[in-house]
Amino acid sequence: MEQKKLLLVVNPVAGRIRVSEAFFEIVKTFNDGGYSVTVHMTKERGEAARVTAQRGSEYDLIVFCGGDGTLNEGVTGLLRGSIQRPIGYIPCGTTNDFAAGLGLERDDLVQAARNIVAGKSYTIDVGMLEGRYFNYIASFGAFTDTSYSAPQATKNAIGHLAYILEGLRNLPNIRPVHAVVKLDGETVDEEFIFVAVTNATSIGGVLKLDSDKVDFSDGEFEVMLVRNPTTALELSREVVAIQTGRYEDSGIRFCHTSRVSFTFDNDTSWALDGEQYRGGKQCDISVLKHAVTIIG
Fold it and tell me: Which residue intervals of the chain are DSSP H helices?
C-alpha cells in the first residue's frame, strides 16, 4: 500500500514547549500512521506561507507545528495558492488561542500528532482584511500591539503573563481610536479603546468569549466594539463585562456578522492572529465560509 505524503512545517522558535524534544516522536507517529513525512524548518517570517503555496499541492496533508502566527501563515499560503488540502495543527506557541477554541491538544505534542492521524476533521471559516487572511482575530486599540511587541523570548518563558505585562506597560500610551463602523446595514460612529473581529473563544489567553456564542463554521465572526469610557464607572462596567462575557448595560457592543467595514481618521494598525498589519484609513473585513479543513 502506497504511503500518503505529509508536509510537516515547523517553526522551531515558537512558544514555551520545545518542539525539538518531541520532534522525532512526532515524525515516527506520522510514519506509523501511514505517512511519508517531509520536514521543512522555517527560518524567517513568511516562510510557512511561501512553502505551503509553492509545495502544498504535492502532499495529501500539511501539518503546521508552531504558534497561531505559524498557522496563519500556513492558511495564507493554502488560500493564496488555491490548494485544496486538509491541514493539521500541532500548537506550541504562547497562547494557542485558536487551538483552545477548537479543543485541540495543546500540552502533549505527540498526542496532538496522534489526534491528526486519527483523522477527526473540522471545517472552519477564515477572515479576510484587505487581502490579508486571519484565522481567529483582527483587532486594534488597547492591548492590540501586545501580541507582537512582547519579545519572543519573554513570551516563550512566561506565556500568558507576557501579554498581560506588555499590555500593562502600554496602558499609559493607549489612546481612543475614532472609527465609523458599518455592519448589517447599521452605522456606528464612536471612539473606541478596543475592537476585535474574532472567531475564537479566547483572546490573548486572557479575554474569554462564551463558547455558546462562537461557531467556527457558521459564516460569521463575532464583533466586539469597546467604546471609550468617559467615567470611572463606565470603565469599571466595561472591565466587568469583558471578564464575564455579559455585555448588557456596558459600553460594549457584541454582535455577529459576515462583513464589516471601518473608516478611520488616520492610518490604523491591526493585529491579525497576533501579527502586526499596518492598515490605512479604510478597511473591509469579510468571512470566507468553510475555507479550510483542519484535522486534529
Answer: 19-32, 47-55, 68-80, 97-102, 109-118, 146-149, 152-158, 160-170, 232-244
